[in-house]
């Protein structure tokens, strides 16, 4: 068979990612309202909180300059809804508008393409007090917020992402600080809330196309290739179930505007069928994303669940990927793990790209991928993160494989541009290309240092992905 050697596309968006609450700090300045992340109780006092994070709010110019030095072509960041509309659905805060105007202008100055996530785990606490996503009024609030963003930034921002990892919020909400309904028919309430987010996302995609002729918008779930633990047909069933419940359930609605019938049947058996109002299905159908953005960290391996499965005994990563009666995650002995126990599977990355593209045929944008580890400054102020270089070498190689297998991918924005506070494991779990001098307990001087991986990535970008070296 002839081996194709297609290069990365000419304008490939080599970038990096962050999210507002994990990087900005300045949680209560310039009129910002509280988000659910600002008020969440920090369970472990030894973990960095987000009040300062890495103070990107005050240091974004210097940070963007470093990104420029690295040669980044894009920067994927999120806008904090509570800076723009402090109580979620009331007055617009001009200082918040100004902050992101400045940030976007700074990116444009260096020809870095802004890729904006509209909502990344940080719902307004005021909206949460009124029921959050369980309340249909939050749909209207999200639409209003989107309109403000499109009006103010639509002249410069071409790529929009609606909601970051809606599927992870639904499956693992409490771990990342997103409140999910408790008590009563919990499952039904959670999927009701999910439906409201789906409708909100659809409305915003429609609005984007109406207001901005040249903008492109898409969903940004976390998608994983799923393997069966064995060749037992039962385990293959579990893998199929997980693909549906974890991946396709979310993308089918976002892309095709329909609910996956197998997921619905499962929910019906659990007495968890949520309510859909008359117009909702029409709204879902109208929305047409221009691309699919997705985050990938690892594949998952599953077996058919034991009937006495005790969920409280599972690790975080297993819980996100286990659903009673459908599938149970097991660890995959063929894969190495990160220092924080996450499996590493570059080939799974290629498989994920292929599966999504084959199913939906839309251009793909990678909005997160990366490895969390313990980095430290050596006495020469250098950070030797060879393990991160190896991770990226292997993953970028697999993007190229996917391209040569026929997949259309137009950007790679690994997590993260700069060290930031992890969703639940503090800043000691570092992901950045740029090191920030702080610890979980002490803010220190917050000085920035480029890690070895950032110099390596610079060469990758310069060679448009040819030199992984
Ligand atoms: C994704 C989130 C990010 C980020 C990343 C790493 O799920 O979109 O916000 O934090 O995962 O996860 P963690 O911080 O838990 O290590």
From TrEMBL:
Domain of life: Bacteria
Transmembrane segments: none
Keyword Hydrolase: yes
GO biological process terms, semicolon-separated: carbohydrate catabolic process
InterPro entries: GH (IPR017853), GH_1_N_CS (IPR033132), Glyco_hydro_1 (IPR001360), Glyco_hydro_1_AS (IPR018120)
Residue numbers annotated as active site: 368
GO cellular component annotations of the record: cytosol
One Pfam family, short name: Glyco_hydro_1
Keyword Hydrolase: yes
Keywords assigned by UniProt, alphabetized: Glycosidase, Hydrolase
Gene3D superfamilies: Glycosidases
GO MF annotation terms: beta-glucosidase activity
PANTHER family, A to Z: 6-PHOSPHO-BETA-GLUCOSIDASE ASCB-RELATED, GLYCOSYL HYDROLASE
Protein family: Belongs to the glycosyl hydrolase 1 family.
Protein name according to UniProt: 6-phospho-beta-glucosidase
Gene, per the UniProt record: bglA
């Amino acid at each position: 068979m002839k081996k194709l050697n297609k290069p990365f596309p000419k304008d490939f968006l080599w970038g990096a990612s962050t999210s507002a609450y994990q990087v900005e700090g300045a949680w209560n300045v310039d009129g910002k309202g509280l988000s659910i992340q600002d008020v969440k109780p920090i369970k472990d006092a030894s973990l960095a909180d987000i009040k300062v994070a890495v103070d990107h709010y005050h240091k974004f110019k210097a940070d963007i300059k470093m990104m420029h030095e690295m040669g980044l072509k894009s920067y994927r960041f999120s806008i904090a809804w509570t800076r723009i509309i402090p109580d979620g659905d009331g007055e617009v805060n001009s200082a918040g508008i100004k902050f992101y105007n400045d940030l976007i202008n700074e990116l444009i100055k260096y020809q870095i393409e802004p890729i904006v996530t509209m909502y990344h785990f940080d719902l307004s606490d005021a909206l949460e007090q009124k029921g959050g996503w369980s309340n249909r009024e939050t749909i209207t609030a999200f639409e209003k917020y989107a309109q403000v963003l499109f009006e103010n930034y639509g002249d410069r921002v071409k790529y929009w992402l609606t909601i970051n990892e809606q599927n992870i919020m639904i499956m693992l909400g409490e771990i990342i600080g997103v409140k999910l309904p408790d008590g009563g028919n919990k499952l039904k309430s959670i999927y009701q809330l999910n439906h409201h987010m789906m409708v909100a996302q659809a409305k915003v995609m429609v609005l984007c196309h109406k207001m901005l002729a040249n903008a492109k918008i898409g969903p940004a779930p976390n998608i994983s290739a799923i393997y069966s633990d064995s060749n037992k047909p039962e385990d293959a069933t579990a893998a199929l179930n997980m693909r549906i419940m974890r991946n396709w359930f979310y993308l089918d609605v976002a892309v095709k505007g329909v609910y996956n019938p197998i997921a619905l049947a499962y929910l019906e058996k659990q007495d968890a069928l949520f309510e859909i109002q008359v117009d909702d299905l029409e709204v879902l159908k109208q929305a047409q994303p221009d691309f699919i953005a997705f985050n990938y960290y690892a594949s998952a391996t599953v077996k058919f669940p034991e009937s006495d499965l005790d969920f409280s005994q599972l690790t975080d990563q297993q819980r996100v990927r286990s659903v009673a009666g459908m599938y149970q995650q097991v660890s995959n002995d063929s894969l190495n793990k990160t220092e924080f126990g996450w499996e590493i599977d570059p080939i799974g990355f290629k498989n994920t790209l292929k599966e999504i593209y084959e199913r939906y045929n839309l251009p793909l944008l990678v909005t997160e991928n990366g490895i969390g580890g313990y980095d430290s400054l050596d006495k020469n102020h250098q950070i030797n993160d060879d393990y991160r270089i190896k991770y990226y070498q292997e993953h970028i190689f697999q993007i190229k494989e996917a391209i040569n297998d026929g997949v259309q991918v137009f950007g790679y924005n690994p997590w993260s541009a700069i060290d930031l506070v992890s969703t639940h494991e503090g800043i000691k779990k570092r992901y950045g290309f740029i090191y920030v001098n702080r610890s979980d307990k002490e803010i220190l001087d917050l000085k920035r240092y480029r890690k070895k991986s950032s110099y390596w990535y610079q060469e990758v970008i310069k060679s448009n992905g040819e030199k992984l070296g």
